[in-house]
Amino acid sequence: MNRETFERQYQDDWRRLGELLEHLEKVKTSSVSDDFPELYRRVCHQLALVRSRLYGTDLEQRLNGLVLRGHHQLYRRSGPTWSQVAEFFVAGFPRLVRREARLVAAACALFFVPLAGMTAVVVLRPELAYSVVDPETAAEYQTMYDPAESRERGAETDFYMFGYYVYNNVSIAFQTFAAGILFAVGSIFYLVLNGVVLGTVAGHMVNVGNGATFFPFVVGHASFELVAIALAGASGLKLGLALVAPGRRGRRTALVAAGRESIRLVYGIFGMLLLAAFVEAFWSSATVFPSAVKYVAGAAGWAAVIAYFVFAGRDRRAA
Amino acid sequence: MLDTTRTVETPEGVELGLRLAGPAVRAYAWAVDLAIRLGVYVAMSIPLAFFGEVGMGIYLVLIFLVEWFYPVFFEVTRDGATPGKRRFGIRVLHDDGTPVSWGSSMIRNLVRFADMLPVAYGFGLASTLLHPDFKRLGDLAAGTLVVHRIDDALPASIPGAPPRPPAVPLTLPEQRAVLEFAERQRGWSAGRSAELASLARPLTGLTGRAGHAALLGIANWLVGRR
Predict the structure, then answer these.
(1) CB A304 within 8 A of CB A223
(2) Model ipTM value
(3) Following DSSP, what letter does each residue of chain B receive, concatenated?
(4) B54 vs A156, A167, A182: nearest CB
(5) B15-19 and B90-94: which strand pairing?
(6) CB neighbour class for A64 (10 Å; exposed up to 12, middle 13-18, buried from 19)
(7) A263 CB within 8 Å of a chain B CB
(8) Distance (Å, rounded) from C-alpha B114 to C-alpha A2?
(9) CB contact under 8 A, B16 and A71
């Protein structure tokens, strides 16, 4: 059979498939008509014939385009439903964190040990604060938390701070995750760096006597934010460790599989940081409440976070 | 044909050809997207300035969302192409040719931050140039590709000529060569066509203009106009 006969014989199939595809692409429905799969398979077969008989690149390209579009319609992956999203936050996310318990523990160590360490170091040797933050930034923090200043922010400023916290903190978390692809070194770096800076600021606040304003402020949202940063580090570590120690798989497949898992962690982290930004903007600076209330709320926050990750999503019926 | 094509085998057993997009066209698309984003920031700053600090807060959230999620939104809902990519006719697909999903798009755009290190997409560019499929770090992590759109090719027209059968039966690649010669007539001058047709003297027994006409005749015969 030569090319012109071939074309004459199968023109109708190609025209019909083109029409069906245009309809599907315009309407964006996921239900295909009954004759679509069979027609698609026929055109696939015809494409294979065109290739093996070398009928010409233009015909091959045309059929390749039709087959690619049909392939998209038949093998499209559907997005998550709202109930799946809810299920993730209720059970899926804590289960995922528990599954990655070792990485989470490593990330927490990489983050909290420098944080606590620097706090202690800076309290003992105050001048070391300036080897981490420059004097201008230190002075900025000092005035921010100076007990002598009036602390109550207006509601408009709260909105601004919410926007700022979302912009700043979530970006830090995303960066900590993304840097993990550099063989996990990037995530380690960002975890330690953030821990050191936060610890230095905390120690400096104690040194200059702002502790009574600083700690009630941060304790409200610290649980959500710090744990989220540590989890971001853990997800980055997961990404990087797929390259460093892929186990039985090749590096490329291990990376893609790890990516799929760790991005689900990032969804949860994003939720936590939104919550943290909300608390930080609207609760933490409310001087209406005395420090005792703030500390109790902070403790409740920590308890809630720990209880969530330890207990949520566990199947009580399992042995 | 020399081309950066990647073949993907579908479940039906046929191979799909995907034309991979290189770093240059991806950089152009990125530049257009950057211009669009900057335009949005400038445009939104004016009305939001009237709302004082609340407006500033909203503005910061807007910048955050657009910076991280602008590509994700367009890649998933607009057929794998941001406006910049659409301008240059490229799109994002999974390795197996399926449209990109939310998770994969999120991964490739979050890891974009690592691609931008150490400066000006250094790691991303290095990865794109070293990888056989032009993948940057984000593509590696997400299992995605950036390909050119396959437009419907213009039907090749073979100039009509009195059909004549070839002196000997031709193998498939030889038939293909004759047909390609006929299809590409438009791109060559008459002298060039005659020069190339002279190379087929063992087949046609003629050179120059006569050989050209003979070769076209064979092409017409092969295509089926008898």
Answers:
(1) yes
(2) 0.86
(3) ----EEEEE-TTSPEEEEEB--HHHHHHHHHHHHHHHHHHHHHHHHHHHTTHHHHHHHHHHHHHHHHHHHHHHHHHHTTT--HHHHHTTEEEEETTSPBPPHHHHHHHHHTHHHHTTTTTSHHHHHHHHHSTT---HHHHHHTEEEEE--PPPPPP-PPP------SSPPPHHHHHHHHHHHHTGGGS-HHHHHHHHHTTHHHHS--HHHHHHHHHHHHHHHHT--
(4) A156
(5) unpaired
(6) buried
(7) yes
(8) 53
(9) yes
Q: B152 pLDDT band (50/70/90 cuts)? A: low
Q: Write out the two tokens for A181.
A: 């692809």
Q: Is any Cβ of chain A less than 8 angstroms from the Cβ of B129?
A: no
Give the pLDDT band (50/70/90) at residue B2.
Answer: low
Closest residue on chain B to A253 (Cα):
B143
- Which residues in chain B are closer than 8 Å to A65, comparing Cβ atoms? 150-152
Residue with token string 């001048």: A127
The single-letter code of the amino acid at A273 is L
Contacts of B10 in chain A (CB under 8 A): 44, 67, 71
% of chain B beyond a pLDDT of 90: 47
pLDDT for res A100: 92
Q: Angle at the Cα of A281 (from A140 to A141), degrees rounded to 5?
A: 10
Residues 8-67 of B with CB under 8 A from A: 10-18, 52-54, 56-61, 63-64, 67
Could you give the percent of chain B with pLDDT greater than 70? 96
pTM of the model: 0.83
| C-alpha span between B226 and B215 (Å, rounded) | 15
- Tell me the pLDDT of chain A averaged across its residues: 88
Q: What are phi and psi of A294, to 5 degrees?
A: -60, -45
Q: Which residue from A318, A159, A87 is spatially nearest to B58, judged by alpha carbons?
A: A159
Are A76 and B98 within 8 A, CB to CB?
yes
* Preceding amide of B169 cis, omega within 30: no
Instruction: Say if the Cβ atoms of B10 and A162 lie within 8 Å.
Output: no
- Count the alpha carbons within 13 Å of B224 in the hemisphere toward its beta carbon: 9
